[in-house]
Write a structure and sequence with these properties.
Layout (H helix, E strand, L loop, with lengths): L11 H7 L2 H29 L1 H36 L9 H36 L3 H19 L4 H5 L3 H9 L2 H13 L6 H15 L3 H20 L8 H23 L5 H10 L15 H4 L4 H4 L12 H27 L5 H14 L6 H7 L8 H39 L4 H4 L1 H6 L10 H4 L9 H6 L4 H25 L4 H27 L7 H17 L1 H7 L26 H24 L12 H6 L5 E8 L5 E8 L5 H15 L8 H23 L2 H5 L1 H17 L4 H16 L3 H22 L16 H10 L30 H11 L20
Antiparallel strand pairs: 1-2
Helix pairs in contact: 3-7, 4-5, 4-7, 5-7, 5-8, 5-9, 8-9, 9-12, 10-11, 10-15, 11-15, 11-16, 15-18, 16-18, 16-23, 18-23, 18-24, 23-25, 23-26, 24-27, 25-27, 30-33, 32-33, 32-34, 35-36
């Protein structure tokens, strides 16, 4: 089937070959319709653009015909005068009937002349009314002109009308006003802000022009208002901003309901009043609208013209028909809203704009007092609310979409920031050497006053706290960037919640929290899947970054804590509200736990590579081991009574320190951990490190226990026995490992002479405790609870010895405005008496007198 646009290019032969009779007939009808349409458009265009020229041409032609007719009449008069002169007629007599006939003829002639004069004047009057947007008056004048033209064309005096052909030509000009007035009325009814009076006049004009019933006009009016509603939402609307389009459409819906009720409901509707005003029995004739003509000339018109007023028979419009059309209109509005309004709402860029739209929409949608009765008379719901029905669901949906989009943009931006941070990790000094950054003093570390020190809203500005947590500035800047984006989003959501109903607010808060919870998982997935070098430094940085998200992002907690979205109070990141009854809805604690778990996962990845840096423990032992790996033993003098009860002194040598490989292993591990700010390493990771150390040492000493050299060498067994006791005391293990360790200790004990072991046992245990007391501070990071294993009595003695010194708490000051106060109070000095008392307390368990041969021996460690 050919389209209308291709009708000019149809091949007739192919058409008859390829199409059936019905299709050919349809194409023929479309061609005729298109020709008539083009002909009508051409006639309209020519009539509107060149009406003055056509009018002048018609007038010139009429003048030519009139002049010729006058000349013929003059000739006829001359001929008649000659005849009278030839017959010598002096005069003639006329009776009453002849005078009456002549008067009637003259009146008819004058009436025709006046009617033609009116036809020539009416176009200008109609155009003036159209330009003034008084379409009702223009319609009355057009109907009046049609009535005059029809009367002239049906005049029985054809000879007289033949003398005035201008009458027919003038109607050709006036007939175009039918389409012009109708088009202008339709355009007026499609306006956004339409007043009831204007609407009633336009509707009355359409009723008079088309001579249709009110039911048809109501249907046309409904379609025009639907077209107006769709036009407001379309791209070509006069409103440029989306907000203005949405508000204008809502205002149009409210206006349409008022218009339908005002114009069509009841016999006293505004439309019926306008029609009765010009068609009723007491209505004024239409000739009264013509003010420019002389009243004496108007008197020459016949009564059928001078008393003319429009007539139309209208059937009353029932309430059922009004309700039916109203429901059809509402159904179509819903379809347009589902399609166009939803697309338009999707163009709203931010929550702030949505908040403004909703705020203004509530003002526009404010119902008048008679709204319920109006809706009831239109068979609509009395509680009909266009905002709640069409706009509010779309706004709520758009808010959720914007929240998701903002989170996705935040995740993408944060992913880029993390990639840049990992790239900087190798070149940035603060990232590469966190230890130097932490221990480097700065004037910005301590807040200037107590107010700043207690300010919990911006923890990232507390430099000393950031150093204590090992958060370098680039990492803090990244976290602050994420927090600012989330804070902006949360503020927008909170502002939007301000004008929401409780149910809407609760639903949006739940959605925001759920979306934030899901986005946290996506954020972690993005970070884990980032393209970066899998190095220990990057693992540590990412682990700290996830912890910083939890501690330095108060906006993140607010996103996941519904109770805080309407609460202005800001809590510390480590503080938590009371747990909800439903643990599944405790989103913040779940997210915080997820961040901690992922941080631990990065720490475990770091631990896998950290273990590779530990020194290897050699399993081959020999005499070189005694010379290179064993520290100097203590010489102990023992005094006993012999059989004659005489004092006898003997000298023995016992281990004083763990073996050098063990010291080296622990020292390397502690040094590596100290470079990472060990207090920031999670306790679970430290526990895993201790487990790995224990497993490695147990494996190593089990291998050594199987060596024949050690089994034959009592000194080696005694030194390794000392090592194992040192390990047991320094690193308490669980029951299973303790059993393995005890079994291994027993194995080494079997390699030592029982009599010698009884002599060495007490001294070895004392040296083990002494060694642990000396060395536990060097390996403090490896302690399970972070507290000294054997430090109770020593600390008490030190406190007692320093009793006369300053007893201020040994804590770092938050702020200091006094130059006389120091940040770090003086540490207590341990005197010789205090040291002697400490050693005395440590040796209370020994019943024998023990003397250290070489008191100048110092602690050695590689």
């Amino acid at each position: 089937m050919a389209n209308v646009t291709n009708l000019l290019h149809i091949n007739v032969d192919k058409l008859f070959e390829q199409c059936g009779v019905a299709d050919i007939d349809l194409v023929h009808k479309r061609l005729q319709s298109e020709v008539e349409l083009k002909r009508e458009e051409l006639r309209t265009m020519v009539g509107e653009r060149y009406r003055d020229l056509l009018k002048a041409a018609d007038t010139i032609g009429d003048m030519r015909n009139t002049a010729g007719s006058i000349i013929e009449n003059v000739d006829t008069i001359q001929v008649a005068c000659r005849k009278l002169n030839d017959h010598q007629l002096i005069g003639f007599r006329t009776d009453h009937q002849q005078r009456k006939l002549r008067k009637t003829t003259n009146d008819t002639f004058h009436a025709v002349i006046v009617q033609i004069k009116l036809l020539t004047s009416l176009p200008e009057m109609i155009w003036s009314a159209i330009d003034g947007e008084d379409f009702f008056v223009a319609t009355q004048l057009f109907i009046f002109s049609r009535h005059i033209s029809t009367g002239l064309q049906l005049d029985s005096n054809a000879a007289l009308m033949a003398k005035f052909p201008v009458a027919k030509k003038q109607w050709a000009v006036l007939s175009q006003f039918f389409f012009t007035i109708k088009q202008n009325c339709s355009s007026c009814l499609e306006r956004e802000d339409l007043q009831p009076e204007v609407a009633a006049k336009c509707l009355a004009s359409l009723v008079l022009l088309e001579s249709c019933q009110l039911d048809h006009i109501l249907s046309v009016f409904v379609q025009m208002r639907l077209k107006a509603f769709a036009g407001v939402l379309a791209e070509g609307s006069r409103h440029e901003k989306v907000r203005d389009k949405i508000l204008a459409s809502l205002k149009l819906l409210m206006n349409t309901v008022e218009l339908i009720h005002t114009c069509f409901v009841g016999v006293d509707g505004l439309l019926m009043r306008e029609l009765n005003f010009i068609t009723g029995e007491n209505a004024q004739p239409t000739i009264g609208l013509i003010k420019s003509e002389d009243p004496k000339i108007i008197q020459t018109l016949p009564d059928i013209i001078s008393r003319f007023r429009p007539r139309i028979q209208l059937e009353p419009l029932s309430d059922e028909r009004v309700g039916k059309h109203s429901k059809i209109w509402l159904q179509n509005v819903e379809k347009i809203a589902t399609n166009q309004l939803s697309k338009l709402m999707n163009l709203v860029p931010s929550i702030k704009v949505l908040h403004d739209i909703r705020k203004l929409s509530l003002t526009v949608a404010k119902k008048p007092e008679s709204w319920s009765s109006t809706c009831a008379e239109l068979s609509l719901q009395e509680s009909l609310d266009f905002y709640s029905k069409f706009y509010q669901p779309l706004i709520n949906t758009r808010v959720r979409t914007i929240i998701k989009q903002c989170w996705l943009e935040t995740i993408a931006q944060n992913g880029d920031d993390v990639s840049k941070l990992l790239t900087m990790n190798a070149s940035n000094k603060q990232l590469r050497d966190v230890k130097s950054y932490v221990w480097q003093e700065s004037s910005e570390d301590v807040p200037l006053n107590l107010k700043d020190a207690l300010d919990c809203a911006n923890l990232a500005s507390h430099q000393l706290l950031m150093k204590a947590r090992a958060f370098p500035p680039p990492l803090v800047e990244l976290v602050s960037s994420l927090d600012s984006r989330l804070e902006s989003l949360t503020k927008d959501v909170t502002t939007f919640l301000g004008a929401s109903t409780p149910d809407e607010a609760q639903q949006l808060i739940e959605f925001y929290s759920d979306c934030s919870s899901e986005s946290i998982s996506q954020l972690l997935t993005t970070i884990k899947s980032a393209d970066y070098e899998r190095s220990p430094e990057n693992y540590v940085l990412l682990a700290r970054l996830l912890v910083a998200f939890k501690e330095l992002c108060p906006a993140l907690k607010k996103c996941l804590t519904p109770s805080q979205l309407n609460n202005a109070e800001t809590l510390m990141p480590w503080q938590s509200d009371e747990l909800p009854l439903d643990a599944k809805k405790d989103r913040w604690n779940n997210a915080a736990g997820l961040l901690d778990e992922e941080s631990l996962a990065f720490w475990r990845l770091w631990l896998e590579q950290f273990v590779k840096k530990w020194p290897v423990l050699e399993g081959n032992v020999g005499y070189h081991t005694l010379l290179t790996e064993f520290p100097l033993w203590d010489t102990v003098t023992i005094e006993e009574n012999d059989e004659q009860n005489q004092p006898v002194q003997s000298t023995i040598r016992v281990p004083a320190l763990p073996s050098f490989p063990l010291q080296k292993l622990l020292h390397v591990i502690a040094t590596l951990l100290n470079s990472l700010i060990p207090q920031t390493i999670p306790k679970r990771i430290i526990s895993q490190i201790l487990d790995l150390i224990g497993d490695r040492l147990l494996t190593h000493y089990q291998t050594l226990a199987a060596s024949e050299f050690i089994q034959r060498n009592q000194n080696c067994s005694l030194q390794y026995y000392f090592d194992l006791k040192f390990i047991q005391l320094l690193f308490p293990a669980d029951r299973e490992k303790k059993q393995l360790s005890d079994a291994l200790v027993a194995t080494y004990r079997t390699h030592i002479d029982p009599f010698d072991f009884d002599v060495f046992h007490a001294h070895v245990n004392a040296n083990v405790k002494r060694a642990v007391t000396r060395m536990q501070h060097f390996f403090g990071v490896l302690l399970v609870n972070g507290e000294p294993v054997l430090g109770g009595s020593t600390a008490a003695t030190a406190t007692k010895a320093a009793g006369g010194q300053d007893r201020n708490p040994n804590i770092l000051a938050l702020a200091s405005n006094s130059a006389s106060e120091t940040w770090f109070p003086l540490l207590p000095i341990v005197t010789k008496e205090a040291a002697a008392a400490t050693q005395g307390n440590a040796g209370q368990e020994a019943t024998k007198v023990v003397k250290v041969a070489d008191e100048k021996d110092t602690f050695r460690i590689f």
